[in-house]
Amino acid sequence: MVLLQEPGRHERAVGRLAESYRAIPADAPVRLAKRTSNLFRARAASSAPGLDVSELDGVISIDLQARTADVQGMCTYEDLVAATLAHGLAPLVVPQLKTITLGGAVTGLGIESTSFRHGLPHESVLEMDVLTGSGEIVTATPDGPHADLFHGFPNSYGTLGYATRLRIALEPVEPYVALRHLRFRDLGQLVATLGRVVDERTHDGIAVDYVDGVVFSGTEAYLTLGTQTAEPGPTSDYTGQGIFYRSIQHDGPEPRRDRLTISDYLWRWDTDWFWCSRAFGAQHPVVRRLWPARYRRSSFYWKLIALDHRFGVADRLEARHGRPPRERVVQDIEVPLERTEEFVSWFLREIPIEPLWLCPVRSRDRWPLYPLRPGQTYVNVGFWSSVPQDPSGDTGAANRLVEQQVTALDGHKSLYSDSFYDQDQFWQLYGGEDYADLKKRYDPDDRLLDLYSKAVLRK
């Protein structure tokens, strides 16, 4: 057992959290007192004090023999991965952005290129301590007295409580990842190949440990297959002038090959926030040379987005050029593998955004607030940009179209960004009676917002 905190520190931090919860007036909104967020949903301003999570941001211990880690809820994956890689271990699923917290990925949703093997981040949780809406700290496990909370916590977004400690499974990793970038000129062939890789976990006789994809157009799309290796040798670096998603592109029929350290692979998307750094000019060769390396990371781009939201910079620039305001279309959705080609083709026709990110996932259990069928292959499609606002003035027109198409294809949409469902449809998709029962048991006085109010009404 490797202890990474002094004895008693975690218990004192939990005590301060509970005390700060009791200090919030009963009629005031309850929120975490933190400066960063990986949510794209706007929310109403509040002057009420937030929950004190200032010392719930680290790794408590790592059990090398059991391959588990006890982690505080506000610990970022950047800090978690640094602690585990030092022992040749990694979380089963590491979301793409460094400042995502473990508690946030579990109460929300996360996904990455190991999700075809391990599902979503909450599926590697073995037990967790939760400060519930009733003010109690309970320990939830898959089959204990709070098993309903264990299974209902994912996708609840803090409306049932806040995780203070999570015990998660780890897996051994090699120091390098060998990559093969496969080009496809036909989306149907890409989807068929993806399905075989997920089922067989190999391609052309080589094991596949990681898989995701990028679609630039209907005739240019890629799967990236990663294989862990201990073989030393030269590696690429995409934290400087090189840009990872551009390195994927090639014209030839043979896969383009590459190698990264395991750390650089896990954070390959963070330097440029996938490809979204181009919106700030950070991919222009001249600007990139002048842009300090410490600011080439998702946490800094978040600050730029926050400033834009506060002062409406982008809309002012559009107006200056005589163009309408833009509608933000920042979403991650899952559709069954067999409907993926249909959804991507529809999206490329109807929504002027590219590239798109693809990531397969197989859930291993039933999670009532985000009911993917266990054992079935879904494909996450991520798209993060904006489109001209509808001439009618409907600020959510494109997002509503996406929601309708996802539902029609038997898919689901993550709730970290803008949502426009009516109440009846929302509860059909996100827990309904299961959620109501959890609310009655763990937040009987409605101290916390309900999921619809938080995700759709943005309170």
Could you characterize the architecture of this molecule?
This protein is α+β, with helices and mostly antiparallel strands and 459 residues long. It has three domains: 2-173 and 442-455, 2-Layer Sandwich (Uridine Diphospho-n-acetylenolpyruvylglucosamine Reductase, domain 3); 176-268, no CATH class; 312-420, Alpha-Beta Plaits. 30% of the residues lie in helices and 24% in strands. The protein is built from 16 helices and 17 strands. The chain has helices at residues 9-23, 77-85, 102-107, 115-118, 147-152, 187-200, 244-247, 262-266, 285-290, 298-311, 313-320, 340-350, 397-408, 423-429, 432-442, 451-455, and strands at 2-3, 59-63, 68-72, 89-91, 125-132, 137-140, 161-172, 176-184, 202-203, 206-207, 210-217, 220-229, 256-261, 326-336, 356-362, 377-388, 412-413. The strands form three sheets. It has an eight-stranded antiparallel sheet. Strand 5 and strand 6 (137-140) form a beta hairpin. It is globular and about 60 Å long. The model has no long low-confidence stretch (mean pLDDT 94).
Tally of distinct domains? 3
Give the total of beta strands: 17
Principal-axes geometry comes out as globular
Overall radius of gyration: 22 Å
Task: Based on the coordinates given, report the CATH architecture of the largest domain.
Answer: 2-Layer Sandwich
Number of alpha- plus pi-helical segments: 16
Q: In which range does the helix fraction lie?
A: 25-40%
By helix and strand content, what is the structural category?
Answer: alpha+beta
Give the overall pLDDT as a whole number. Answer: 94
Please give the CATH class of the largest domain.
Alpha Beta
Strand content: 15-25%
Q: Briefly note the CATH topology name of the largest domain.
A: Uridine Diphospho-n-acetylenolpyruvylglucosamine Reductase, domain 3
